[in-house]
Structures are given as C-alpha cells and as structure tokens.
From TrEMBL:
Name of the featured protein: Flavin-containing monooxygenase
Cofactor(s) this protein requires: FAD
Source organism per UniProt: Macrostomum lignano
Top enzyme class: oxidoreductase
Gene Ontology molecular functions: flavin adenine dinucleotide binding; N,N-dimethylaniline monooxygenase activity; NADP binding
PANTHER family (UniProt xref): DIMETHYLANILINE MONOOXYGENASE
UniProt entry keywords in alphabetical sequence: FAD, Flavoprotein, Monooxygenase, NADP, Oxidoreductase
One Pfam family, short name: FMO-like
Superkingdom in the source lineage: Eukaryota
Gene3D superfamilies according to UniProt: FAD/NAD(P)-binding domain
Membership in a protein family: Belongs to the FMO family.
InterPro entries per UniProt: FAD/NAD-bd_sf, Flavin_mOase, Flavin_mOase-like, FMO-like
C-alpha cells in the first residue's frame, strides 16, 4: 500500500501551518512511516506568506494570474498580537524582547517566517505554480489536479491525489457592487483589494462604502494621510464609532454622479435623501469565496461567515461524501493564526489517521449545530464567544496542547475600539503564553507612517 498523496493549495499562514505540524510530528517520530502522507504544496506567488507577502501589483501579475495581495502600505495589525500569538513560538521568543501589541505588517510577516524557519519549511513549497483545476474521479477514487508552472508558462501533466487541502484564502477576490451612475463618476473608484497607498487621498473628499474592518481602516488611513473628509456608507448598520470630526456615516449610497469637466468633483446621494460632494470612492465591500479551479460540486460559496455551511469541524467538505477535500481558513476571522493552526493540526491528525471521522449523519448534524448557533450570534461579544468555542473544540480534538482561548483579550479590544477608534491600536495587552506585558508603541498609530520592520524595531528601542 502506498502512502496517501495530498495536494496542499496555498502557502499563506493556513497552508504553512499544515506543513509546520506535519514536519514537527514527523521529527518527533509521532507519525508511523506508513501513515506519513506525501504532501505537494503549490503556491502561485513567488514566495510563501499569503496576504502577508506585500505586493505593489494590482490586477494581474507578470504571469497573467489575478494578484492575490489585498494588503496595502501602512497596514498595522487590526487585532492585538497577543490574540494571534502561537503558544509554541511567542513574539518574545521571536523578537528577543517585548514589542507593542499592534505591529505593522512587516513585523507580523517576520514573526510568521521565524516559526516557519524553525523547520525550514520553504523548500517544501512549490512556488510559482498555480492550481488550475481540481476534479474528483470516482472511478479512480482520486482527485485529478492540473497545475500551471508560471515561469515556464506550461500546464503540467495532471496528477492524482487522495486528498486536497485548500488553503487559498478568501480575502482576495473583491466583491464589487454596482451603484447607479458609477460609470460616469468623474473621480477614482477602487476596491480595497487594489489599494496600495493612501497618499493619493491627501486633500480629497472620500466616500467609503462598507461598514466592517476594511471600511474602518479606510476611513482612518484616509484621514491619517490628509483626506479632508470621509463619508462612510453602510448597508445594514453603521459602525458607530466615536469618529474624528472629519468622518461621518450615512446609510446606503443610492446614486453617484458628477461633472465631466476636468478637475470638477463628484457627488453621492444616500438612501436618507442626503447628498455629499466627493472626489474618490473606496469600495470596502468585502470579498467573495472564489475557487474557480475547483469542480462545481467541490466549491464553497456564499457570504463571509463565522461558520460556512457544509463543513465538518469548519474544515471537511461534506457534499459528495468522500470527505477528502478540506478547507482551511474559510471562516470570517477574529482568531487568525491560532485558528488556522488548530485547524491545521486537526487536518494533519486526520490525514495521518489519528482522527477518524464519525458517520455522515453525525458530521452533518455537528456542522448544522454550529451553523445554527452562528446564525444566532449577532453581537461582537457573541461572535467572539462563538469563534473561541470553535477554536477550542478543534484544539481539544487534535490534542493541541495549549488553551487557545484569548476571548478576554478580544472583549477588551472591542471595549477599546468603542472608547476611541483612533487610539485602540496604541493600547497594550499581556501575552497569555509568555506572560510578557507589551510596551506602548514608539508612535501613536494615527501618526506612524513608516511601516518598515527596521523603523518599527528602532522605534520600540527608542522608547
Ligand atoms: P492567504 O493569506 O490569503 O493565503 C492564501 C495563499 O494561497 C496565497 O499565498 C495565494 O497566493 C495562494 N493561492 C491562491 N490561489 C491559488 C492557486 N490557485 N494555486 C496556488 N496557490 C494559490 N489577519 C490578522 O490576523 N491581522 C490583521 O491585521 C489582518 N489584516 C488583514 C488586512 C487585510 C486587508 C486582509 C485582506 C486580511 C487581513 N487579515 C488579518 C486576515 C488574513 O486573512 C489572515 O491573516 C491570513 O492571511 C489568512 O491566511 P490564509 O493562509 O488562510 O490565506
Ligand atoms: P467584511 O468583513 O466581509 O465586510 C464587508 C462589508 O461590506 C460589510 O460591512 C458589508 O455590509 C459591506 N457590503 C457588502 N456588499 C455591499 C453592498 N452591495 N453595498 C454596501 N455594502 C456592502 O470585509 P472586510 O473587507 O471589511 O474585511 C475582510 C478582512 O479584511 C477582515 O478579516 C480584516 O482582517 C481585513 P453588511 O454589513 O453585510 O451589510
């Protein structure tokens, strides 16, 4: 009997956690050789890191692939680092001392790499290879996967796999709604997926559509970089933060328009009948679950939810009944790195035969119970409690070895956000795993412009 063959798609935090636990357990001798799967990890970018690998590109890349990156310059962690810290690799271990609770993107990326380098994971990733199609062949009882070698511009021969682990992320294909008149709006219209720099908003009046994390950050970053005003337009409910005077909220935009003369501005009308003069439109309207390479019957669809339907343990794709397609990181996210990590260890235990699946009926009932509970979760507090239970359940099932519940940190973070949305990233938390209390940042978030690791570390030391 040959060992199971696994196709792992994507080398972001989720995919790398699968490689991490597999290699860790292999080195610990915890997996019998006959249970060790043969994993091939395909990553379409030229390096590991997923969204944390910044790219200046937008649209399509040099190989004609859709650009994966949705992160922009000047992105600081939106949650405290203490809420995403790996228990077996703390920030203190990585940086050799305390750092503030809200680091910029480069510092988080550096931290991720520190953990990946512990087991020299990069050579295990086949970079610049984009998965083009995944089909399940019932006759062979295998997945058939076609991959494109981007550098050679060549489709490789189809390969058979017993399992597919999809870690391709779901904050990469923008959800782009239409608003009446938008095709004649005289200013720039962009989705946050394509945002890279905030400098162009200096001196401008900005309309932000959306009322979630991207909308919040777009409003603050625009102001930070000199926008004169920001109007945020919500579909369901306002963010209702204590905004600076230059930021306001309106109900849903119903129409936009403007004057075609060069240099003239535009306007937006809202469902309460009010109007605003605007120069730019930022669509902070979220992302689509978009897996065009997966066969129809394997594709997860729908909105961004804490528990997408049809996934046992939020991971095993139930439709079709072969239970050998897994999705990691497909949830909406309060917990991030540690949630992916618990999911990854659960996945590794399943792939190596240490976790056995219950009957189809039991799996469907379990998934449905989570879906039903998620539907009843409305407030941030309830959502955090929900995801905590989800993560802890996965960790318990997979013998994770640490208590991943950091709900208290998230509750406190929500309180800070409600107190003052402009200063919550300047607050400090204590680490559950190192015991270390974070120092204040070198500069307040609303003043910090240089997002480089060097500058961040220098400003920490300057404190
Ligand atoms: P991703 O990071 O998206 O990685 C998926 C990988 O799959 C990519 O490398 C991609 O190239 C690859 N891939 C996709 N399709 C294919 C294919 N067909 N073939 C081969 N490879 C493929 N989280 C936080 O914890 N803190 C934050 O401050 C934070 N800020 C965020 C800001 C923005 C703007 C966005 C969009 C997200 C943010 N997140 C944040 C959440 C983020 O989703 C997670 O931190 C994390 O990156 C998800 O990891 P992942 O591995 O599941 O997916
Ligand atoms: P989210 O959290 O999925 O939020 C999307 C927002 O966009 C949400 O407020 C939606 O309103 C709004 N939306 C979606 N469609 C429309 C239309 N048609 N009209 C108006 N508003 C709309 O995405 P984010 O980009 O904010 O965050 C994703 C990740 O990136 C997150 O994990 C962060 O870490 C960064 P709704 O409330 O559904 O009515």
């Amino acid at each position: 009997m040959t060992n199971k063959r696994v196709c792992l798609i994507g080398a972001g935090p989720s995919g790398m956690s699968v490689l991490y636990h597999l290699e860790r357990l292999r080195l610990e001798g915890a997996i019998a050789p006959e249970n060790l799967p043969e994993v091939t990890c395909y990553e379409k970018q030229d390096d590991c890191g997923g969204l944390w690998k910044y790219t200046w590109r937008t649209g399509t890349d040099e190989y004609g692939e859709n650009v994966h990156g949705s992160m922009y310059r000047s992105l600081w962690s939106n949650g405290p680092k203490e809420a995403l810290e790996y228990p077996d690799y703390t920030f203190e271990q990585h940086f050799g001392g305390p750092i503030p609770s809200f680091p910029p993107r480069e510092a988080l990326r550096d931290y991720l790499w520190g953990r990946w380098n512990k087991y020299n994971l990069k050579p295990m990733v086949t970079l610049l290879h984009s998965v083009q199609s995944v089909n399940f062949d019932p006759a062979k009882d295998k997945f058939t996967v076609v991959v494109k070698d981007l550098k050679q511009n060549k489709l490789l021969d189809a390969k058979d796999f017993d399992f597919v682990v999809n870690c391709s992320g779901h904050f990469s294909t923008p959800n782009v709604p239409y608003f009446k008149g938008i095709e004649r709006f005289p200013g720039r219209v962009m989705h946050t997926h394509d945002l890279r720099s905030w400098r162009e908003f200096s001196g401008k009046r900005v309309l932000v559509v959306g009322a979630s994390y991207s909308a919040e950050d777009s409003a603050l970053q625009s102001i930070k970089f000199g926008a004169t005003s920001v109007v945020c337009s919500y579909r369901s409910k306002p963010m209702d933060f204590r905004w600076p005077d230059s930021v306001s909220e309106r109900p849903l935009v119903t129409e936009v328009g403007g004057d075609d003369r060069v240099g003239a501005g535009g306007w937006a009308r809202f469902s309460d009948g009010s109007m605003e003069q605007i120069d730019y439109i930022i669509l902070a309207t979220g992302y689509l679950h978009h897996y065009p390479y997966l066969a129809e019957q394997l594709r997860l669809r729908g909105p961004n939810l804490l528990y997408p339907a049809g996934l046992y343990k939020g991971t095993v794709w139930l439709a079709g009944g072969n239970n050998r397609l897994l999705y990691l990181g497909a949830q909406d996210q309060y917990y991030t790195y540690t949630m992916f990590d618990a999911q990854a260890l659960w996945t590794v235990r399943y792939l190596t035969g240490a976790i056995q699946l219950p009957s189809s009926a039991e799996m469907a009932a379990d998934a449905k119970a989570w879906v039903n509970r998620a539907a009843l979760s409305k407030t941030d507090q309830e959502n955090i409690a929900f995801q905590t239970d989800f993560v802890v359940d996965l960790a318990n099932q997979s013998n994770y070895g640490y208590d991943l519940d950091v709900s208290k940190i998230f509750y406190e973070w929500e309180d800070h956000r409600a107190e003052d949305i402009t200063t919550y990233k300047d607050r400090q938390f204590g680490s559950k795993f190192s015991g270390q209390q974070a120092p204040p940042p070198g500069q307040p978030f609303m003043k910090a412009i240089d997002d480089s690791l060097e500058h961040f570390l220098a400003s920490c030391q300057g404190k």
